[in-house]
Amino acid sequence: MPFGFRAFPAAQDSLRADVLAGLAAHPKSIPPKYFYDAAGCRLFESICTQPEYALCRTEQALMAAHLSEIAAALGGVESIVEPGAGDCAKVRRLLDVLRPGRLLVMDIAGAPLAAAAQALAHDYPDLDVTALAMDFLGDLDAADPWLAGGGQRLVYYPGSSIGNFAPAAATDLLARFRRLAGADGRLLIGFDLKKDPLRLHAAYNDAAGVTAAFNLNLLARINRELDADFDLARFRHYAFYNPPEGRVEMHLVSLAEQDVRVAGERFHFALGEALHTEHSYKYRRDEFAALAERAGWRLACGWEHDGFAVQLYT
Ligand code: AVJ
């Protein structure tokens, strides 16, 4: 079970810089990658079990139902790269059928990633596992040395993580995946489809309030890690589907006029002012294929079920 772990520094610096810049901007916003501290990772796993949020369940059902077809379409794969691997649960299914020699997982949440990747290395004794605790958005090329050597590379990007990026940024990210995978590489990607807006609305407004807790946890994290004094009771989780933009938007709306101190700086919130925390873009099948093709990928095949899609690109 060869296992390597490397934590890249500066994660804390970027949280601080991004939060201070985002709170000074108009409108205020904080990038969604900062949701995932230990509590945020647990809350996201809980979101995936809510009845209204079918995304993760549907993707796993799709993968299970079409696994042999997907494996056949992929052919031989020597290395799998999963950016934003989280708890490394999803890739296990692919490891079982593809039996690659190498797995590289990356995630900004380093501690949970290291634990998950180590358990995985134990369960797959012949697999060479490397876990990189890093923000792959900043430096995807850092992954390159760990992939050196021949063999076909597969970039696996499940879970509709791509939905967090506006179309231009999504194209840019997929183009970077293309360079990482190489000319004979492949991309297996899952994304959420456009569907009934009321269903989308419900998925981000679950009755148990887990999505609200996930959104507000961002403020709790900033309080803890950046010595801030957000009063969570004075911000409202507010999420809705915006049809012309094709995205769910999540905000934290200030319920009062208030000042907040973060890392020694003071920020003013007007009553009703929104702090934007996430975009979650939804696509039609062809819309997404056109986006991926602009990034240098060619659609090979795809599978869909209940408002979710998995596509394979070469
Ligand atoms: C992990 C980005 C796919 O956008 O649906 C879930 C995150 N936010 N509920 C999504 C999320 C609110 C999720 N992604």
How would you describe this protein?
It is a single chain. Helix 7 (167-181) links the parallel strand 6 (153-157) and strand 7. The chain starts with a strand and ends with a strand. The chain has helices at 11-24, 38-47, 55-65, 67-74, 91-98, 110-123, 167-181, 197-203, 210-225, 285-294; strands spanning 3-7, 28-29, 79-83, 102-107, 128-133, 153-157, 186-192, 235-242, 247-254, 258-262, 265-269, 274-281, 299-305, 308-313. The relative contact order is 0.18. The model has no long low-confidence stretch (mean pLDDT 95). With 314 residues, the chain is α/β, with parallel strands linked by helices. The strands form 3 sheets. An 8-stranded mixed sheet has the order 1-5-4-3-6-7-14-13, sandwiched between helices. A 4-stranded mixed sheet has the order 2-12-9-8. It has a two-stranded antiparallel ribbon with strand order 10-11. The site of N,N,N-trimethyl-histidine has 12 residues, from helix 9 and strand 12.
Detail the topology: elements first, then pairings.
Layout: E1 3-7, H1 11-24, E2 28-29, H2 38-47, H3 55-65, H4 67-74, E3 79-83, H5 91-98, E4 102-107, H6 110-123, E5 128-133, E6 153-157, H7 167-181, E7 186-192, H8 197-203, H9 210-225, E8 235-242, E9 247-254, E10 258-262, E11 265-269, E12 274-281, H10 285-294, E13 299-305, E14 308-313
Parallel strand pairs: 1-5, 2-12, 3-4, 3-6, 4-5, 6-7
Antiparallel strand pairs: 7-14, 8-9, 9-12, 10-11, 13-14
Helix pairs in contact: 2-9
Bound molecules: N,N,N-trimethyl-histidine.
The site of N,N,N-trimethyl-histidine (AVJ) has 12 residues, from helix 9 and strand 12.
